[in-house]
Design goal:
By secondary structure, the chain is mainly α. Helix content is about 45%, strand content about 5%. It has two domains: about 1-45, no CATH class; about 65-195, no CATH class. It has helices spanning about 55-65, 65-85, 100-105, 110-120, 125-130, 130-155, 170-185, and strands spanning about 30-35, 40. It has a two-stranded antiparallel ribbon with strand order 1-2. Keywords: Membrane, Transmembrane, Transmembrane helix. InterPro entries: DUF2752. This is DUF2752 domain-containing protein.
């Protein structure tokens, strides 16, 4: 394939004129893409999305005092649904995990709904039996929400809840532990069979 376009060739549909990789005219383009005709073209520059009315409304909600209320409503709906439909009974009201139906294995989230049910009813050991990682993460998620809501609603308050933020290493370790938990809970030998849901 040629790195430079032949003189007089027309560009592929939707592409600007082809150019050489060291083309001075397109020096601001740091990346070149290979077109369907085999020529190199400057990578497209995507414009910043316009700040339209819908985006402005969502930004005001996310950064204003309605943000914590909106997120609380989003969390309250599934909590209400879990409380209204007991996932620990034999009724199929919540449906089955598609991954488990297809593969026969627990997915990384299997047991999370039942763990939430038991957490909401104060049964920590049974909640951990269904999904230990979710039970471990729950207090951090609740604290992060409360800290954010407090800072949003009371920015000048004397009492400041420290912001809890996790770096990439912490998140990577958490995801790795979750991955190991997923594999271990599907092993068919004792004591791992106790984690099977």
């Amino acid at each position: 394939m040629s790195e430079t376009a032949a003189v007089g060739t027309s560009p592929a549909t939707g592409y600007p004129e082809p150019c050489a990789a060291d083309c001075a005219e397109h020096a601001e383009h740091r990346q070149m893409v290979l077109g369907p005709d085999g020529n190199l073209y400057p990578a497209p520059v995507y414009p910043e999305p316009k700040n339209g009315p819908v985006r402005r409304v969502f930004r005001k909600i996310a950064t204003g005092p309605l943000g914590p209320l909106a997120l609380l409503l989003c969390a309250a709906l599934p909590v209400w649904y879990v409380l209204a439909n007991n996932p620990t009974d034999d009724q199929p009201d919540l449906g089955a995990c598609a991954f488990k139906l297809v593969t026969g294995f627990d997915c990384p989230g299997c047991g999370g709904t039942r763990a939430l049910w038991y957490l909401l009813h104060g049964d920590l050991p049974e909640a951990a039996r269904y999904h230990a990682i979710a039970v471990f993460a729950a207090p951090f998620i609740v604290y992060m929400y409360l800290s954010w809501a407090w800072r949003t609603w009371f920015p000048n308050a004397r009492l400041k809840l420290p912001k809890l933020a996790f770096g990439p290493n912490t998140i990577s370790v958490f995801l790795a532990v979750w991955g190991v938990f997923w594999v271990v809970r599907n092993l068919p030998w004792a004591p791992f069979t106790g984690l099977y849901v």
